[in-house]
Amino acid sequence: MQLRRHSRKPLLFLLSSLCLLVGGFSLSDFPPLGMGTESVLISAVSDGDTLRAADGRRIRLYGVDCPEKRQARGADATAITKRLTLGRTVKLEKVDQDKYGRVVGIVSLDDGSVLQEELLKAGAAWLYDQYCRRPVCIGWQTLENTARKRKVGLWSDPVPVPPWVWRKNRSH
Asked: What's 139's domain CATH number?
């Protein structure tokens, strides 16, 4: 008996149609699926969204932007990331590489939780919707909205300044 291989075209058509129906997206709006997942030992944390692997690679968290170290709430974001990752082995799903040579990825912790989600729930990060284009980002937006409503972390500040605005103001 010979098994028939199913074509992926109907599945891609279905996904493409669903994206268009739900939000006017097409599959081309999303980056290609991950470049692979690997276990990585975290040896340093630069700030809330930037880590260093024991092999020297720098890792930038995909889809979120934490306050900078010298920015209000930056120390909080850094402390959360250190507490959850420093000296631990995490799963890194590589999504891209940025212009600074950092691996951009999604970091899963040893308990199965996702670092980006933990930061959003704690009010320690913004969803970086300019770059967050994967379907998971929809759920991440919900986590940020919930933290905002509950006034958790940076959302307890009267006027929290997004890091991209803070960086732009500092460069002038």
From this structure: 2.40.50.90
